[in-house]
Amino acid sequence: MPKTMSEKILARAAGVPAASAGDILWVNVDKAMLDDILGPRVEIAEKMLEIKDEVWNKDKVVVISDHYTPPANAKQAEIVKFTRDWSKRHGIDNYYEYVGPCHQIMAEYGHVLPGTVVLGTDSHTCMGGALGAFASGVGSTEMLGILLTGKTWLKVPETIKVEWTGRLAPGVMAKDISLKTIGVVGHAGATYKTVEYCGPAIEALSLDERMAITNMAVEMGAKAGLIAPDQKVVDFLAARDITTGYELITSDPGAVYCETHAFAAGELVPMVSCPHEVDNVAEVGALGKKAIHQAYIGSCTGGRYEDLAAAARILKGRKIAKGLRLLVSPASQEIWKQAAADGTLSVLADAGAAILAPTCGVCVGLHSGVLADGEVCISSTNRNFIGRMGSKNAGIYLGSPLTVAASALTGVITDPRQFI
């Protein structure tokens, strides 16, 4: 019987010949990721010491301090220190801090491989599906069991097929694909399901763009977001000296999907998600002249090199609107260095942007650019919930890096196509 990517990957991880949606499987975890905000400091460390003094496989555990780095106060600094000390005490060599949001670091450092199961204490772990991994977020208590045994149970999800045909028009980005899809499926429309993106428009996207799409699968309630791995994934891994140890698993022709959605990429226009739900989606042009106080380009969703370069193309030789703040946080140290080396960061800074460290801080409202009462921000990040970036009386709009850059120029939420 033909199988979906999720069915095939989870069957491999469970060591069974085949699996179907709805099956409960006891699977082997290939990589376990903990971050500073929901990792060792949340009940895991002390309980682990009570039960066992070692993790099941130190090479398969990754710990990343990203939400509280750089720390904004003593409490945050203590959390990062605790995470650092815990990792050292338990011999976790795969410990990273001050280098960027965890999902980008997991990909860049070769911890996400096609055909594997990657679980992490952050809901946007699903970004790893851009590399063909079954990647998903889990709670801290479930992670404790994984640390001790290397296993967990998973229900094989049903799969929603999302097909995008054609090609994107100039001024439209992968983020617009993501927002359009979420607007149609709804914030709970894919609960505990896999959303599998396919079609010529998806195949034409770079890995940077694909990661922006799978990253936000959880905003539909999805357990995982998947894109079939191809030569672009192979090349990405080869650039990191990884040529073996993985399998390019794709869905079989005739695989069973619980529902299917079809979109034409050529008809897509720049989209925005309006406060205070990600699925509250509208075309940019429908908002009129919505004034903003802050624009933000960054995070594990919208801070990769291609995002920064796209924004720089719009901002080059121009200045942001008077009285507006434009914050830019590259998604990793590697991206920061690449964008610095070719002048991209200088273009952004010359336009009036403040260049920040690679961090989750702004996105999650912990530091580096929180919002005051009544302020409005347009952001290339993944969530716009009440209080997400500071005050509960602030408003957050989500858009592509191009839309954010264009809006920074005008001071109102703006269709970027006029600057292309």
Which topology of the largest domain does CATH recognise?
Aconitase, domain 3
Low-confidence runs: none
Taken as a percent bin, the fraction of beta residues is: 15-25%
Q: Mean of the pLDDT scores?
A: 95
- Determine the oligomeric state from the structure: single chain
CATH class of the largest domain: Alpha Beta
Global geometry: globular
> What is the C-alpha radius of gyration, as a whole number of Å?
20 Å
Question: CATH architecture of the largest domain, please?
Answer: 2-Layer Sandwich
Number of helices: 14
Strand arrangement, major sheet: 4-3-2-5-6
Main β-sheet description? 5 strands, parallel
CATH level 4 superfamily of the largest domain: Aconitase, domain 3
Number of strands: 18
Task: Estimate the helix proportion, in percent.
Answer: 25-40%
Structural class by SSE content: alpha/beta
Question: What's the number of domains?
Answer: 2
What can you see in these coordinates?
- It catalyses: (2R,3S)-3-isopropylmalate = (2S)-2-isopropylmalate.
- Heterodimer of LeuC and LeuD.
- Its EC number is 4.2.1.33.
- Belongs to the aconitase/IPM isomerase family. LeuC type 2 subfamily.
- Catalyzes the isomerization between 2-isopropylmalate and 3-isopropylmalate, via the formation of 2-isopropylmaleate.
- The structure is a single chain.
- This protein is α/β, with parallel strands linked by helices.
- The protein folds into two domains: 259 residues, Aconitase, domain 3 (2-Layer Sandwich); 149 residues, Aconitase, domain 3, CATH 3.30.499.10.
- It contains 14 helices and 18 strands.
- The strands form five sheets. The protein has a five-stranded parallel sheet, with helices on both faces. Strands 16-15-14-17-18 form a five-stranded parallel sheet.
- Helix 11 packs across helix 13 and helix 11 packs parallel to helix 14.
- The mean pLDDT is 95.
